[in-house]
Amino acid sequence: MTTQQEILSLTAELNEANYKYYVLDNPDMLDFEYDAKLRRLEELEAAHPELVQEDSPTKRVGGAALSAFEQVHHPVSLESLQDVFSMEELQDFDIRISESAPERVYSVEPKIDGLSVALEYVNGVFVRGATRGDGVVGEDVTENLKTIKSIPLRLKNAPERLIVRGEVFMPKSVFHALNEKREAAGQSLFANPRNAAAGSLRQLDPQIAAKRQLDILVFNLQLCEGERFETHSQTLDYLKQLQFKVIPYRLCTEQKDVQEEITRINEERSEYAFDIDGAVIKVDDLNQRQSFGSTAKFPRWACAYKYPPEIKPAKVESIVIQVGRTGVLTPKAVVSPVRLAGTTVTNATLHNQDFISEKDIRIGDTVLIRKAGEIIPEILEVDFSKRPENTVPYLIPDRCPVCGGETVRDADGAAIRCINESCPAQKVRFLTHFASRDAMDIDGLGGAIVELLVDAELVNTPADLYTLQEEELIPLDRMGKQSAANLVSAIQKSKGNDLWRLVFALGIRQVGAKAAKTLATHFGNLDAIRNASVEALTEVSDVGPITAQNIRSWFARTDNQMMVQRLIEAGVNTENQTEILDRRFSGMTFVITGTLESMGRNEAAERIELLGGKAAGSVSKKTTYVVAGPGAGSKLKRAGELGIPVLSESEFLEMIK
Fold first, then answer.
1. Cα(275)–Cα(172) distance, integer angstroms
2. In this predicted structure, what is the pLDDT of residue 422?
3. In the chain, N or C: fewer CB atoms in 10 Å?
4. Dihedral through CA 588, CA 593, CA 598, CA 601, nearest 10?
5. What is the CATH number of domain 311-409?
6. pTM for the predicted model, two decimal places
7. HEC per residue, 456-523
8. pLDDT value of residue 65
């Protein structure tokens, strides 16, 4: 067998194994056998790069990092769907359809809570993949999509040109494992699998995307040259024959059957590998679809039934107190296990004393719980009919549960905090915050490692981090020579961070990342910030009188002055490095609402700030523009009430070019 024949054979064999494993969920090749064949293929390709096939499975691991995403104009629009929230609204939809098409048939499918993309094939080869964007213009994420092993890179017996639409998602099992890993590393957690999938697909480095183990289900045929179909279900069956992983569907002719299928999907949602937030109902006949057409926003022949959040009872078994990095005591209810949105819930947030008192939540109570946004368990109300005798109102203790120190309530809010500056809980959380991704971004320095350093009395303040030596770290648990070297290297690297990261990392009350950026840009260096008067600080946008006083009070403390001086002596950068690209948005205030397909909200806010503008969190008369993506809610309504211009995502992208 020649080298070329061996490469072709291995490529075909491994791609078939991928299909059986990731699409059919029926593997017939042992893992070690697959790995051995893949290594052999990698060796052959390295020696003969001119023989590498377009559909080589070695492309799944991700190539070189990109500098930016190119825009893609979709040949066929990727439309969004109109939501319905009740069976009555669904019946209205059916009545409207049946008036024009009495013999209508519906395809009912689960609605995946993921990221919509278009995949394009030419002569059977995957050539381009793009995000939905605004439906007309998206972003080229081809290299990241190639890392998804359920996407075929080459099709057999394919038409000359084919475009399909699918939903990229992060499997729930992968999401939970990823968050556990990020928590251990002290990184911020993804809010839900959809956010995790969107963030992973938009990584400029495909190797990062490859590690996130994304998946896809194809749910629509956008364009297929040389083939004709009469129904949507025929197109899905055709795509399945081409070895795509296709959305499950059921055809229904009666409204009662549609409702039964919607109910069944909801009851079995926890069994799906992916998150769903509803069911999609589509007219199956393609000619009927064409006659119905679309509005400016939605196709008239389809809708999405959105499920209400599950609400279930649970018993409050105890209330525990967590101490945050600024000393705030946060109560959490430990509840009897209850299944909600596919996961077992054992605790729920209680926010603060005011929340507990307002709802009169007591230990022993039966409460109604739901997941806010399908993620965070929250208590809606108490079922007073089931309250046991002899329960007493719950009060947050007046002593810190960690150090026993005195607690006081903020004069300007509901927070109760420990005022012992040496409280161990505050020390660990403060150091973890200092090293976190949005602060000094010290890779590998998560909460678990911080606890090791504090317990070993190697670190007491952030300044101590910069004096750590490898030989001090090696004896610690979970630390070897390489890990110690990597951590010291990451700490030293953080010295070069921009000023705003340091200001945010200092943990000054009410100074978040946004205010830190504004302060860094306004004053230019740390000396100017720490010497500024309250009056000078309040002149800065986003800094009010209370925040200004917090800044002055923080820098006035002797221990903080000593720590800052040690950071400066260690070589930590204290100068602003962010350059305004241009000032086209000078004097403008933007509010971003809904979900942007091309970038996250934080990234959009950064782009606005780099162009001289301001990104705000709420709509007011001072707002210049509201940027609205799918799912925009009350902010969009408020913009309409105030007459604030609303930009689509594509219009916003045009403005920031």
1. 7
2. 76
3. C
4. 70
5. 2.40.50.140
6. 0.55
7. CCCCCCHHHHCCCCHHHHCCCCCCCHHHHHHHHHHHHHHHHCCHHHHHHHCCCCCCCHHHHHHHHHHH
8. 47
Token pair listed for 280: 């999609």
CATH number of this structure's domain 589-655: 3.40.50.10190
Q: Tokens 């629509």 correspond to what residue?
A: 220
Residue 27 has a pLDDT of 67
In 3D space, the residue among 308, 315, 356 whose CA is nearest the CA of residue 335 turns out to be 315
By C-alpha distance, which of 593, 589, 447, 564 is closest to 503? Answer: 564
Residue range 424-496, CATH number: 1.10.150.20
CATH architecture, domain defined by 3-61? Orthogonal Bundle (1.10)
Query: Rounded CA gap, 578 and 560, in Å?
Result: 25
Quote the tokens at residue 249: 């569907």
**Residues in the chain with pLDDT < 70?**
21-27, 31-32, 35, 60-68, 183-189, 191, 341-343, 372-375, 412, 580-581, 631
At a CB cut-off of 8 Å and minimum separation 6, what does 299 contact? Answer: 79, 81, 289, 292, 293
Alpha helices in 336-423 (DSSP H): 353-359
Q: How far apart are CA 47 and CA 402, in angstroms?
A: 61
Residues with a catalytic annotation lie at 111
For residue 367, what pLDDT is reported? 95
Q: Can you give the residue ranges of every domain in the chain? A: 3-61, 73-306, 311-409, 424-496, 499-569, 589-655
* Planar angle of CA 427, 429, 433, nearest 5 degrees: 115
- List Cβ neighbours of 176 (8 Å cut-off, separation of 6 or more): none
Pairing type for strands 407-409 and 343-349 reads unpaired
CATH 3.40.1160.10 is the classification of domain 499-569: no
Whether the CB-CB separation of 112 and 275 falls below 8 Å is answered with: yes
- Output the pLDDT for position 311: 85
> How many angstroms separate the Cα of 496 from the Cα of each of 462, 499, 574?
15, 9, 9
Six-digit token pair at 525? Answer: 């260096």
